[in-house]
Amino acid sequence: QVHLVESGGGSVQPGGSLRLSCVVSGDLGSRGCLGWFRQTPGKEREWVANILKSTGSPHYRDAVKGRFTVSQDAAKNTLFLQMNGLKPEDTAMYYCAAGRGFCPDKNDYDSWGQGTQVTVSS
């Protein structure tokens, strides 16, 4: 069984930065996707970024390219999301997840953290 715990959320002003962390425990098995998703009330959970566990190759949704950086510390079993240049539209609950298949598809993830809230407001 895989267990994921996020931390690092908070409230920042537009233009600010936050670094989310996700500690992963348990056997990932063949799960090669480590991803970050976000969700606001009444909306679908959307993919933000992911990293391929095997290669460390990152991928981003267009709205966050150039502002967010996803990385992993394999030795510490930790996934990170560095968020710079935050905008009010980035406000959401952020979740980390592990899965296999097409990494931007939330339906290909079967292990999720509990989420950490990010609020961007002046």
Question: Can you walk through the features of this model?
Answer:
The chain is an all-beta fold and 122 residues long. The protein contains no helices and 11 strands. The strands form 2 sheets. Strands 2, 4, 5, 6, 9, 10 and 11 form a 7-stranded mixed β-sheet that branches. The chain has a 4-stranded antiparallel β-sheet with strand order 1-3-8-7, with no helix packed on it. The chain is globular. The termini are far apart. The mean pLDDT is 96.
Category from helices, strands and their pairing: mainly beta
- Mean pLDDT score: 96
Distance between the termini: 40 Å
Portion in strands: over 45%
Helix content: under 10%
Radius of gyration: 13 Å
Would you count the extended β strands for me? 11
Low-confidence segments, given as residue ranges, are: none
By oligomeric state, this entry counts as single chain
**Secondary-structure element string:** EEEEEEEEEEE
Largest sheet entry: 7 strands, mixed
3D shape: globular
Tell me the number of helical segments per DSSP (H or I, 4 or more residues long).
0
